[in-house]
């Protein structure tokens, strides 16, 4: 089995992208895997720590066990998304324990999120997890900069965030961060925002976000690693395509398929209908939004 890190690097070199579909509810896993296989491309099923507590994904183990029922590693791998050092509620997290558990279970890649820490502490925490991941033979993703949206309460006005560059990943810091941590992929803040996960906002449409392509290009040139776009739902497609051409190799999708699942379940009370809605939306994203149909074989080149 080709390492997931190699597949993402192959996508990066080929000008393709690997979507990562977050699963706040366990029944979403099967239709996502089915859609990716039917589209003949590659993607991750992803689970973040907040989805175990603020939604109903339960735990890293529960997601793993459900994923294994439908596993097809040629098309879909399992990614541990945001395990924060400090979470969205400002609480310290036993991130080493959570990530160690995922590595022991057999996750194919992991992410440590030290973005709420000072730079030096983020470097230290990320380097520790990258070493753990590499010893287990899997890639490590990290985050630098502030991708807003998960915090409690309303976020700052989006146009203000974009115009001022508030929270954007610093280019010089990113170059140092990648060198000193040995992370494989870097999640960056370049205008993207997370979907809200708390209160009434979690059911609202996301702001149509933009990407500062010039800033992204500078990050690509400074870091030399595949870059990751979190908060991929709701971004204008023109910016998404340009971002992929300028260093983004992995895009996280959460709100887009979560709300489809929740709305179908609310309207019909039928789990099968909700799963069908997830399948159709995932397939649309793969075929129409990302234009990835039939690209799986392009990612099979093994690095020398």
Mean pLDDT: 91
String of helices and strands:
HEHEHHEHEHEHHEHEHEHH
**CATH H-tier superfamily:** Aldolase class I
| Count, helices | 12
Number of strands: 8
Structural class: alpha/beta
CATH topology: TIM Barrel
Summarize the structure.
This protein has 304 residues and is α/β, with parallel strands linked by helices. It is built from twelve helices and eight strands.
Give structural attributes.
about 300 residues; globular; eight-stranded parallel β-barrel; single chain; TIM Barrel; alpha/beta; about 15% strand
Kindly describe this structure.
With 304 residues, the chain is an alpha/beta fold. It has a single domain (4-293), classed as Aldolase class I (TIM Barrel), CATH 3.20.20.70. 45% of the residues lie in helices and 14% in strands. It has twelve helices and eight strands. An eight-stranded parallel barrel has the order 1-2-3-4-5-6-7-8, surrounded by nine helices. Helix 2 links the parallel strand 1 (18-22) and strand 2 (43-47). Helix 2 runs parallel beside helix 12 (271-289). The mean pLDDT is 91.
